[in-house]
Design goal:
binds MU-OXO-diiron, alpha/beta, 25% strand, 399 residues, Metallo-beta-lactamase, Chain A, Rossmann fold, single chain, five-stranded mixed beta sheet, 12 helices, seven-stranded mixed beta sheet
């Protein structure tokens, strides 16, 4: 691994992270494009390491650091976030480097000490605190619940770089380090997916944090999150998208999510989608055994209508729907209109479960449809009419 090189980002800042090409599941979030764990070296008079990486990547991480500096010459470590994809090698690095100080937010100090045993104290920094680390001026901004209580941004004044931890990140493995080297549509989708799955629950806090950062009047030549590419050209775009996603305003888009056993629920799903489409609503149909829950909640974030359909099995709901809805409920979606549908053989419990879940999420159920065994033409016509009526309600809501 000695051939691995750090990537120079600016005059004094280097990327020393790692690329996890084969990651396909990040604690239950399906990551078809892999990920990166970004860490940074700031080469001032007193070199600073910002964050570490997942523990299994130690060799790669150290090789990149060594391509710039002997690790023992690092004087400070900043830990922006305790989750172990960023702190996994912190204990090893503290032992190896023996830095003058290790900094974290006050919650970060607490969380780090509940994860690891350190032979030394971690120094807490306050929200808004500005300090000189050698000749480098840093400010720290608490970013509580983006997405843990300890999350923190670090701002390097001299080169106008915001190290934003998980915020503005995405799970995307690539050889390119900067946004403008990659396809925008991929970046937008993966950033949206990251937001929908990791940050969405904390949308009200996102809006407050964006206001707080905006009031500081900082310039961002680079926004450097801990996952995926770094924002060198699209800083305003990604901040604007975060604001849009955090506001959770619905659009004229519908999402029909379902699973099926013998295609009866699928026939209802297709007919509901037909009614929506012919009424001019952009509609997406997602069968859960072919689509991950992570992609479903991504598509749902800007949908004004979410319709869920499930067959009944073993006197209960089809399990992929239960999985998806439990996950979706945890993300506290806002401003949706809903519908439920499904087929059954003889007992028909699935609809009751779907309705209860929608009510628990405070999503009004504007229509419901169930059918025994196989839907005939009359039921298909009712499903199309349900789609049409959902489209009309959506148009009344989203002008
Ligand atoms: Fe990428 Fe919350 O860790």
């Amino acid at each position: 691994m000695d051939n691995l090189q750090a990537v120079k980002l600016s005059e004094r800042v280097f990327w020393v992270g790692v690329i996890d090409w084969n990651l396909r599941d990040f604690h239950g979030y399906q990551t078809q494009r892999g990920s990166t764990y970004n860490a940074f070296l700031v080469m001032g008079q007193k070199p600073i390491l910002i964050d570490t990486v997942k523990a299994p990547f130690q060799e790669e991480f150290l090789a990149r650091i060594k391509s710039v500096i002997e690790p023992k010459k690092i004087k400070y470590i900043i830990s922006n976030h305790t989750e172990m994809d960023h702190s996994g090698l912190l204990p090893e690095m503290v032992e190896l480097i023996n830095p003058e100080k290790v900094f974290a937010s006050s919650k970060g100090v607490e969380h780090l000490n509940r994860h690891f045993s350190f032979s030394r104290e971690i120094t807490p920094v306050k929200n808004g605190e500005t300090i000189m680390l050698g000749d480098c001026r840093f400010s720290f901004i608490e970013a509580r619940m983006l997405h843990w209580p300890d999350s923190m941004f670090s701002y390097f004044h001299d080169e106008k770089i915001l190290f934003s931890s998980d915020a503005f990140g995405m799970h995307l493995a690539s050889s390119e380090r900067f946004d403008h080297q990659l396809d925008w549509s991929v970046l937008e989708y993966e950033a949206k997916k990251y937001y929908a799955n990791i940050i969405q629950l904390y949308s009200p806090v996102v809006l407050k944090t964006l206001e707080k950062v905006s009031a500081m009047n900082l310039e961002f030549k680079l926004i450097a999150p801990d996952h995926g590419p770094l924002w060198a050209k699209n800083q305003e775009n990604i901040i604007g998208l975060y604001k849009k996603w955090a506001e959770q305003k619905p659009s004229r888009k519908a999402l029909v999510v379902y699973d099926t056993m013998w295609n009866s629920t699928q026939k209802l799903a297709v007919a509901i989608a037909d009614g929506l489409i012919k009424s001019g609503v952009s509609t997406k149909l997602m069968k859960l055994r072919e689509n991950s829950r992570a992609d479903v909640v991504t598509e749902a974030i800007d949908a004004g209508v979410v319709a869920f359909g499930a067959p009944t099995i073993n006197n209960s709901v089809f399990p992929t729907l239960a999985d998806c809805l439990v996950y979706y409920k945890g993300l506290r979606p806002q401003n949706k209109l809903g519908a439920v549908f499904g087929s059954y053989g003889w007992s028909g419990e699935s609809l009751k479960y779907l309705k209860e879940m929608m009510e628990s999420m405070k999503i009004p159920v504007l229509g419901e449809l169930s059918c025994q065994f196989v839907p005939g033409q009359e039921t298909i016509d009712q499903a199309v009419a349900l789609g049409v009526s959902l489209a009309e309600k959506l148009k009344e809501t989203v002008k």
